[in-house]
Amino acid sequence: MLAKVINEKKLKANGVIGFYPANTVNDDDIEIYADENSTEPAFTYYGLRQQTQKPNIKGKQNPNLCLADYIAPKDSGIKDYIGLFAVTSGINVEVYEKIFNNAEDDYSGIMIKAITDRLAEAFAEYMHDRVRQDLWGYQPESLSTEDLIHEKYQGIRPAPGYPACPEHTVKKELFALLKADEIGMELTEGMSMTPASSVSGFYFAHSAAKYFSVDKIDKDQLEDMASRRSVSIDQLKRWLASNLR
After folding, report:
1. Per-residue pLDDT tens for 119-149?
2. Taking the mean position of all CA atoms in its chain, how far away is CA 170?
3. CB burial readout 174-212, b (16+ within 10 A) else e
């Protein structure tokens, strides 16, 4: 199936990335600016912080993490940056789906979806490597495939819906700033990406940045976020249902 996709050249991949000035506010939120001259943020990413009792490690405090920890606070006066990305490998996949449906070839229909999903993840990994080496250029040395697999590189690329940023609605602002519609990517009302074989998210370059899981949060954090975002608690409960105690 992979050889078929490569040889026939029907399937298309597209991607867009951008780097933007950014600073942390209110400890947990990240203001993202459209350009260096903007005085108002293009949008604010509202972060969730781990809210569990953690044991100290070798006598040192084990902090509850939030993605905002990896961007300089606004009141520090430090100009910091964040990256955004959206990539897809599923453009024109409907051509194959129609062929396999007409042939009643369910197996190939499943396989083309699996292949395009893997290609999207590979595309996201490839672009992250490009970002580190030359587009942002904070880690110019080339890594082996083994080191890439074990994530032995600086920086992270968390995606909305994943453990570190489980809430999906930020995709709307992310897609708008990147103009993702111009490369054939869109969002459904439920914040699912189309084509389905797509990945989007953030680039953090901080040397201490690491992947983590927010897990369960308490009512106080829910209420505080609702106030910061100017949304109702009931609305936020629907968005964060899987993270509530």
Report:
1. 999 999 999 999 999 999 999 988 898 998 8
2. 9
3. bbebbebeebbbebeeebebebebbbbbbbbbbeebeeb
Task: Report d(CA 124, CA 75) in Å as an integer.
Answer: 33
Fold of 2-214: Cobalamin-dependent Methionine Synthase; domain 1 (3.10.196)
pLDDT in tens, 189-202: 999 999 999 999 99
CB-CB contact of 194 with 185 (8 Å): yes
Separation between Cα atoms, residue 37 and residue 55, nearest integer Å: 44
For residue 136, give every residue at least 6 positions away whose Cβ sits within 8 Å of its Cβ, in sequence order, or none.
19, 83, 203, 205
As a whole number of angstroms, the distance between CA 184 and CA 102 comes to 25
Cβ contact 19:83 at 8 Å:
yes
d(CA 55, CA 61): 8
The residue extents of the domains of the chain are 2-214
